[in-house]
């Protein structure tokens, strides 16, 4: 028995489930409505199972931060309506010891703080329209977030008071992404909107990804 997670484009999900039935036989399914969409749990004739979790929040905010750069975007229907991508250098760790190591650590910490401040500013503009306290349910405000990059930097950005309107939103985490660039931002949106399928197979038949 093997279990793996597959990300399926929402438009392909019905076809993917049809392929699951072809490989594993008829299945019984249960559905549960959630704010992010309908979660599907299926149990096939050969014992293979599927738990499919969508992330259908609209609009969807994306915040990516690494020490090599950042990307922020607001998307509706799979396309960005606003975005900002940039680079901002944070010095790498040094092998030097003593006073030099302390000096480099202070410089690195200052650069990281400046990066966080810059991303907070861009996120406030792109995701909140420069309004730190938008009314609940206001148009254009994210209903969910996709985040990725450096966990610590992402956490520091989202904990900023200027972004308190985003606190508590449903979140999909993608910490395996490389340094944010435009193509990485687009990939994060595709993966963030995907139906996340947890597939457990009891046979050697493999599913397409």
UniProtKB/TrEMBL annotation:
Membrane-spanning segments: none
Pfam family, one: acVLRF1
InterPro entries found in the cross-reference section: eFR1_2_sf, VLRF1
Superkingdom classification of source: Bacteria
Record-annotated Actinobacteria/chloroflexi VLRF1 release factor domain positions: 59-198
NCBIfam families in the cross-refs: acVLRF1_NCBI
Protein name: Actinobacteria/chloroflexi VLRF1 release factor domain-containing protein
Species this chain originates from: Terrabacter aerolatus
Lineage: Bacteria, Bacillati, Actinomycetota, Actinomycetes, Micrococcales
């Amino acid at each position: 028995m093997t279990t793996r997670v597959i990300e399926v484009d929402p438009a392909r999900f019905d076809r993917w489930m049809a392929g699951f039935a072809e490989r594993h036989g008829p299945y019984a399914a249960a559905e549960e409505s959630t704010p992010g969409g309908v979660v599907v749990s299926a149990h096939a004739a050969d014992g293979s199972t599927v738990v499919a979790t969508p992330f259908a929040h609209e609009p969807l905010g994306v915040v990516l931060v690494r020490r090599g750069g950042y990307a922020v975007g607001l998307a509706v229907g799979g396309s960005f309506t606003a975005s900002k991508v940039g680079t901002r250098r944070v010095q790498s760790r040094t092998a030097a010891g003593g006073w030099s190591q302390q000096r480099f650590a202070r410089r690195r910490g200052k650069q990281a703080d400046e990066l966080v401040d810059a991303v907070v500013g861009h996120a406030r503009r792109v995701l909140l329209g420069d309004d730190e306290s938008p009314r609940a349910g206001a148009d254009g405000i994210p209903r969910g977030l996709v985040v990725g990059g450096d966990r610590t930097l992402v956490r520091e950005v989202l904990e900023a008071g200027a972004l308190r309107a985003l606190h508590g939103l449903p979140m999909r985490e993608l910490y395996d992404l490389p340094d944010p660039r435009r193509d990485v931002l687009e990939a994060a949106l595709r993966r963030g909107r995907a139906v996340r399928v947890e597939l457990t197979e009891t046979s050697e038949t493999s599913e397409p990804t």
